[in-house]
Amino acid sequence: KQFIKKDGIFITWEVTWNCNLSCIFCIIKEFHKTEAIHNASRNTFRVLREYIQSLKTYNSLSTGGEPLLRSELFEALKRIKSKYQDIPLGISTNGTLINWTNAEKISKNLKIISISIYGDTPELHDFHTGISGSFHKTLNGIKILQKMKRRLRSTSIITANVVLTKFNVTRVGKIINFLVNLGIERVKFYL
Fold first, then answer.
1. Is the predicted pLDDT of residue 140 greater than 80, yes or no?
2. pTM (2 d.p.)
3. Beta sheet of 112-116, edge-to-edge order
4. Among 9, 68, 121, 127, which residue carries the largest CB count within 10 Å?
5. Contacts of 106 (CB under 8 A, 6+ apart)
6. Regarding beta strands 57-64 and 89-93, do their DSSP bridges make them parallel or antiparallel, or are they unpaired?
7. pLDDT digits over 78-107, tens only?
């Protein structure tokens, strides 16, 4: 749709390797030992901001780890957006840290909001994340975002990222139905 151009690049920006979950399939957790080296510095944010236009970027997605753990994330995104209004910015988050304050910042500044969901039940999702209660926190985050989008009349799009494993692959149909009923606008599956 409106995000896709054939020229230019899509930047995926891993702003941290820290995460508040412990997903069974995640490779990022292996790098936590070197987090001090790999956390994007403020200088990295500045350099990225300077090169976005010269790279003919058509979309930029902040991810991690969990990008909402970075205190300076929204300030960096706000600066990028103020300079390059035509480049849609996005975030890929597990959704557990979304609250009314950051939902407003997300809805005002980001076009694509990708939230990770690994099942249609608390047991299945929480098994994948390794954290009891993460399913309900993620759903709460989605509901807050949806309400904020309506309040602000935001054109942001909420999508779901689903990593398929041997534990949830047989429930793909149920997961899709669950996400559609939840009001998710797009679903991406990863193998």
1. yes
2. 0.84
3. 9-16, 57-64, 89-93, 112-116, 157-163, 186-190
4. 68
5. 91, 98, 113, 145, 148, 156
6. parallel
7. 877 787 777 788 899 999 999 999 999 999
